[in-house]
Automatic annotation (TrEMBL):
PANTHER family linked: COPINE, COPINE-7
GO CC terms, sorted: plasma membrane
SUPFAM superfamilies the UniProt entry points to: C2 domain (Calcium/lipid-binding domain, CaLB), vWA-like
Domain C2: 6-131, 138-265
GO molecular function terms noted in the UniProt entry: calcium-dependent phospholipid binding
Gene3D superfamilies, alphabetized: C2 domain
PROSITE patterns given in the database record: C2, VWFA
Homology family: Belongs to the copine family.
Organismal lineage: Eukaryota, Metazoa, Chordata, Craniata, Vertebrata
Entry protein name: CPNE7 protein
Keywords: Repeat
Amino acid sequence: PRAPAGMGDVPEPCPQAPLAVLSKVELRVSCKHLLDRDTLNKSDPCVLLLMQSQGQWMEVDRSEVIKSNLNPVFAKIFTVDYYFEEVQKLRFEVYDSHGQAGVGTHDDDFLGGMECTVGQIVAQKRVTKPLFLKYGKFAGKSTITIISEEISGNNGYVELAFRAKKLDDKDLFSKSDPFLEIYRIDDDRSEQLVYRTEVVKNNLSPIWEPFKVSLNSLCSCEEKRKLRCVVWDYDSRGKHDFIGEFFTTFEEMQKAMGENKVQWDCMNPKYKIKKRNYKNSGVVVLLDLKIHRVYSFLDYIMGGCQIHFTVAIDFTASNGDPRNSCSLHYINPYQPNEYLKALVAVGEICQDYDSDKKFSALGFGARIPPKYEVSHDFAINFNPDNDECEGIQGVVESYQSCLPKIQLYGPTNVAPIISKVARVAANEERTKEASQYFILLILTDGVVTDMADTREAIVRASYLPMSIIIVGVGNADFTDMQILDGDDGVLRSPKGEPVLRDIVQFVPFREFKNASPTALAKCVLAEVPKQVVEYYSYKA
């Protein structure tokens, strides 16, 4: 695949497809010296993350509440999409929470806020800033620290299930209330909190709920990276008692796959020195570990998934007589007509991903020789046994030579071509070991006659390895196309059956006539990678 545009050519914003997500970023939050709003004990802080959208601050997510702590390290990991070409403003707000009532947004519960951009955090990796109250007043010496990490490509996640046995009892009148924390030890010896389990009350042999963490978060995708695991006895006043700790690695944890279990002695270093026959303060057992790999579009392409393009061109009479200069199919020796412009612009982008650089090229809605009967799926090179053309240039040549031989007619039936490609996709799916994925590129002036059949055909196709890109040519009303592109809600067949996955992307070419090829490329291919990944995930 072609590399993204360099800094020189700034891509125009695309009217409907999202910008290319450069990456996802994980943010971890901690605070120091928070204001104490509670008379009897310390504040119970919680952090809200807000993002600016059209000038309005919207809450995106919030952390857990940490009881009675003015220097909290939050276990919650905030995940945000990072768009390289956008300024994304973030605001962190810290509140003192009150039990069941949740997070109050009253001024007296507000412990301070801080604003920055995703770009700043990503560039600096670690940002510490003072917290401000209303009207730009400092919140005492309070600070907030945000640590960011980009999630790398081979990012799967892992599901872990821990329990402990015979932990030390720290409570006088009842048993300990244990919880477990896992820290990742970074290269600079600093520790990052990866996960904090729930508290199991009054139990020296707790079984904690299974949980998922990303491999990136757990060990930066390095199996030998050291992890520190600590067991605490929970205290509602925030003074948790240390029970014990142990060190491990993700490599060692993986022995717990299948029927095996891995266990560690939970050690208290002080007791080890003081007590002569000290063995441990209990044991911690990893009952189960499951790895879930998450594959990206590039993983499929590099792993041998082949992409096959079919181009379908609308030859209905509504396009206008090709001999007339107003026609979208006007044969002009000096410059390409609207169809050719769209075909070349979109085709050249797709060509990069096509495995054999051969495109099947079909036409619909014309009367074709020799008998001049209407066809809705003819090969534009008039070779019924092989409708493939060599590259986009081959499609252009076949298009130019077929125009004078056919008679533009109608109606605009799109379902036959969708069904034709779907049959090939279904066949390939049954017979081939190497995965093949089919993309149908439909160039049309817009108004579909067989809307019900087309919806039915798209619902069927959504179960197959295929995507449909519809390029609207000319200035017609493209309402029908907008309906087929399921972005505004789920597309359904006439009987009400929904698509399995959204496989249609509609691009109005007129909005890109003066845009750079990069901007068009973004819109055309915006959804394809996601659609490919969704299909193979569904298959798996």
